[in-house]
Amino acid sequence: MSTEAEEWGKQLRLAGYKLTRQRRAVLAVIAAGETHLSPAEVYDQARIACPDLGLTTVYRTLEILSELGLVRRVHLEKGCHSFASASGGHSHHLICNKCGEVIEFEGCDLSPLLERVAQRTGFVIEAHWLELFGTCPACQRVSENSPQRHQDTKK
Amino acid sequence: MSTEAEEWGKQLRLAGYKLTRQRRAVLAVIAAGETHLSPAEVYDQARIACPDLGLTTVYRTLEILSELGLVRRVHLEKGCHSFASASGGHSHHLICNKCGEVIEFEGCDLSPLLERVAQRTGFVIEAHWLELFGTCPACQRVSENSPQRHQDTKK
DNA sequence: ATGTAATTGAAAATACTTTTCAATTAGATT
DNA sequence: AATCTAATTGAAAAGTATTTTCAATTACAT
Lengths: 155, 155
Prior knowledge:
The structure is a homodimer. By secondary structure, chain A is of the alpha+beta class. Chain A is 41% helix and 22% strand. Chain A is built from 6 helices and 5 strands; from the N terminus they run ααααββββαβα. In chain A, the strands form 2 sheets. Chain A has a 3-stranded mixed beta sheet with strand order 4-3-5. Chain A has a two-stranded antiparallel sheet with strand order 1-2. In chain A, helix 2 (21-32) crosses helix 4 and helix 3 (39-49) crosses helix 4. Chains A and B meet through helix 5 and strand 5 of A and helix 5 and strand 5 of B. Strand 5 (124-135) of chain A pairs antiparallel with strand 5 (124-135) of chain B, so a sheet runs across the interface. The structure holds a DNA duplex.
């Protein structure tokens, strides 16, 4: 199990949750995954290590991880069913349109923008939410006919 | 019918769609609405003017409007089922956490940020997506006990 | 080892969205 | 104004995603 998954396990315990075999399997999958994963994808992958895992538990575990801020929903044009790790703190996601790889980045200095919008609209701005989309280095190198994950997953 | 809805009607015709009674009703509701609305909410409101409207048609019309860029899905923590008008061009949404009011704003200059992230990650960045959340002027004035729309809609 | 509340999976229920299809209709053509 | 035709419609069915229920199991404090 990766270090990140171990760390998450501790956090779960700290928050008063039991660290079950099923939860371990789910943690391991998302912590290891470099792409965004839907509950069904997490289910499929986690069942390799834990065959009696139920889909319900995947949903429940994802909810806990979200609540603890360890995982965040990734919002795409196609739908908002996927999750990616969000290792604490304030960060945003950079997502590869081709393979689905997700990278976190921090240090978004939007203060001037936020202030300008606040002044113009009279809103008190409480949160912001930024996602970037593009092509990752690996997919840039790949010719257009090569197999790539996550594009056209659904017809 | 508001001017915006009339304009949208023209755009539909231009794109080769027929301007039916049902579509008019849907356009009118979203163009007039200052908040984000789910398909079911659009359905309820549009049926006042057009009682034989079907929910299916609401979905179909929202899809057309999205495709033409006149409407955009609003992504919230709670879910991503709502839509708000997006009067053309590149713009982002500022959303009131209390009443659900949606305001569009433009002129997000993220170029320095985007460039920095691109350099650090090697990604070619193709699109970005920004949403701001806060409290609108009206809801700021309202005391905490007053009725407010859209908060706690679902339990 | 034991006790107990949290957790589990399966099934049912609920929610959301799309597809199918025969009937209707917008709008072009006469 | 009447006619034509392909686009559009709503209802029902199907499909997909998610949550709830509940009896059985299990983590882990004692």
